[in-house]
């Protein structure tokens, strides 16, 4: 019986993220720790999947920019910050906190380390 070396992992196990906010918009960059994992991220971290993951925050759009030579991608989520840092009544629900939310996403078919 063959044993698969493919597993399901949380995104944070194979990538890290950086985030920033500008007014009511958020950008999150995701970078694979290992270059071999970038194709898996490019396949699974789609605009539609990120939009669904943040659906409770009602972004009006999600745009993905691929950065293959850096092994990463940048997402711009529009109108997702409840009016922006200065207008929002939410505590710490911007930038870095939301990048951690994205890193909880499940990635299928990652390689065993």
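-> sequence recovered:
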């Amino acid at each position: 019986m063959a044993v698969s070396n493919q597993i399901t992992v949380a995104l944070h196990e194979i990538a890290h993220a950086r985030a920033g906010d500008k007014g009511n918009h958020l950008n999150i960059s995701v970078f694979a720790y290992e270059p071999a994992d970038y194709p898996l991220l490019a396949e699974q971290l789609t605009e539609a999947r990120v939009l669904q993951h943040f659906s409770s925050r009602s972004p009006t759009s999600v745009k993905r920019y691929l950065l293959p030579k850096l092994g990463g991608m940048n997402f711009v989520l529009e109108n997702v910050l409840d009016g922006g840092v200065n207008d929002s009544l939410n505590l710490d629900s911007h930038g870095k906190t939301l990048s951690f939310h994205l890193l909880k996403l499940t990635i299928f078919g990652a390689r065993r380390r």
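The first strand starts at residue 6 and ends at 10.
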